[in-house]
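#onboarding

Welcome to the new folks! Below is a worked example of what a typical request in this channel looks like: someone posts a single protein sequence, and someone else replies with the predicted structure as tokens. Don't worry about understanding the tokens yet, we'll cover that in week two.

Example request:
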Amino acid sequence: MKSIQLSVLGLSLLFASNAAFAGGGHNHADEDLVVGVSGAGQLAVEFNFSELIELPEISGGFLSGWGVADPGFFNLADDEPAEDFFVLGAGADVRFEVINFDGAFQGWTQGFASTFAAPGEFFALGGPDFDEHPFWQIDSSDSGFDPLQTQWNATGRLIDVGSTGYAASDPFTLSFVPVPEPSSLSILALAGMTLMLRRHRRAS
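Example response:
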């Protein structure tokens, strides 16, 4: 994991950026990955994996590109026997472990202390009660960033390093798409209208 060293000024920018990027609060399990365990003792996660997760453009601070602190990871609160989905037991210590992230995509740990992006790196959730939100980022300053790419995928799994010894979850993939700032959208719309007018004039 790579770490960053921040000055006092940098820390001020960090906290301001963190609040701005995160959007000031979360909708808990409505948008989060809900984590539990199967009756056979395998970690499991509930989420709409067909959903494309939108990352707003980052403005200000020390990061560039697109990013947001959702979705997070939230422990299952009540057993769901019909779904073979149960609350984590005492002693569970869960991590989200990277299997493969697309180039220029990374996650940040709490407080922007370090990143996780390479296979085997992880984001600690703890347990059995947790509500943890990494900051997901498409880094436009990364040498691997492709400006023509429209979707970034992050594949990982959940592992248990606690005394419960649950089996690792099946791998799952989160798909992220960058969303331009409103000003960028306005410029794109204006460019589109200009192009349409030019075509209309040529056809006249």
